[in-house]
Amino acid sequence: MGTRKKYDPSAGNQSEAGSKRQPTLKQRRAEEGMRQGKNRHRAHLDAGYAPSTAKSLPYNPRLNARVVESVARRRAEAIARAQSSTDTLVGYLYQIADASVGDVLDGRGEFSVGAARRNGVDHLIKKVKKTIRHTKEGARIETHEVEMYSRLEAIAQLRANFGMKQEPRPNTYDEDRRREVERALSRIAEREGVEQSEAARRLLEELGDDVPHITRIVHEFIH
User: Fold this and answer.
1) Among the three residues 66, 87, 108, which one is the final residue of a domain in this structure?
2) 212: Cβ–Cβ under 8 A, 6 or more apart, which residues?
3) Could you tell me how many helices (H) and strands (E) the chain has, helices first?
4) Strand pairing partners for 147?
5) In a domain, 158, yes or no
6) What is the C-alpha to C-alpha distance for residues 174 and 214, in angstroms, rounded to an integer?
7) Is position 212 within any domain?
8) What is the separation, in whole angstroms, between the first and last Cα of the chain?
9) What kind and span of H or E run contains 133?
10) Could you give the CA distance from residue 19 to residue 26 in angstroms, rounded to a whole number?
11) I need a surface site. Which of 12, 70, 85, 218 has the fewest CB within 10 A?
């Protein structure tokens, strides 16, 4: 006597020959719900199955394998799309950094959309302002003011993306003034036999308020 198998609506329809048919709309919705992170019961309820059916569903290893495989495939596709988008963005930044106004000028040195297209940089033009004026003799003069996307901004973005952000340079003017103050304090301290902080106080008395850019540095040596 044969055993009767419990019907599993999530397993997909089977023909008498045992060949697998396409899943129904409810089955596809249930699988999609599981891919989104819902548990099997909630996914089947949301797909339209009756509560009693959704509650009594047996574990289906084939369905679980399909869901796991689908989630992994979607994750891989999402990563590939993200990488492609990043590569495209970096490519645009390189184009901006490499372009120049000369790429949009014709042989006479005048702006030309045709020249920009031939050089493949028409998409790098940020703004074009056309001005038309007439001379007293009635001659028509047309000029163009062209603004390309900023090369410096593109280079800064590339440096940041690849961890090459430039460290801020020291203020050479302040460094030169600081060295002058240190030499002056050393001379005062040696001449008058005092500590550096006292030499700084005496130097402030000599300077007065006439050189604030120097006195600001001298104050740093008073402990």
Assistant:
1) 87
2) none
3) 9, 2
4) 127
5) no
6) 9
7) yes
8) 102
9) strand 125-134
10) 20
11) 85
Q: Distance (Å, rounded) from C-alpha 207 to C-alpha 133?
A: 60
Q: What is the C-alpha separation between 155 and 98, in angstroms, rounded?
A: 9
Side-chain-side CA neighbours of residue 157 (13 Å):
16
Q: Which two tokens stand for residue 150?
A: 């900023």
Return the pLDDT at 16: 41
Asked if residue 104 and residue 83 are part of one domain, the reply reads no
pTM for this model (two decimals)? 0.37
Distance of CA 152 to the CA centre of its chain: 16
Query: Of 222, 215, 223, which Cα lies nearest the Cα of 180?
Result: 215
Residues 104 and 81 in one domain: no
Tokens 């959704």, located at residue: 54
Tokens of 67: 């869901």
Residue 173: the pLDDT is 65
Residue 19 lies inside a defined structural domain of this protein: no
Helix axes 196-207, 212-219, angle to 10 degrees: 160
> Which residues of the chain have a pLDDT value below 50?
1-2, 4-7, 14-19
Sign, CA dihedral 68-71-74-76, equals negative
Task: Please report the pLDDT score of residue 164 as a whole number.
Answer: 61
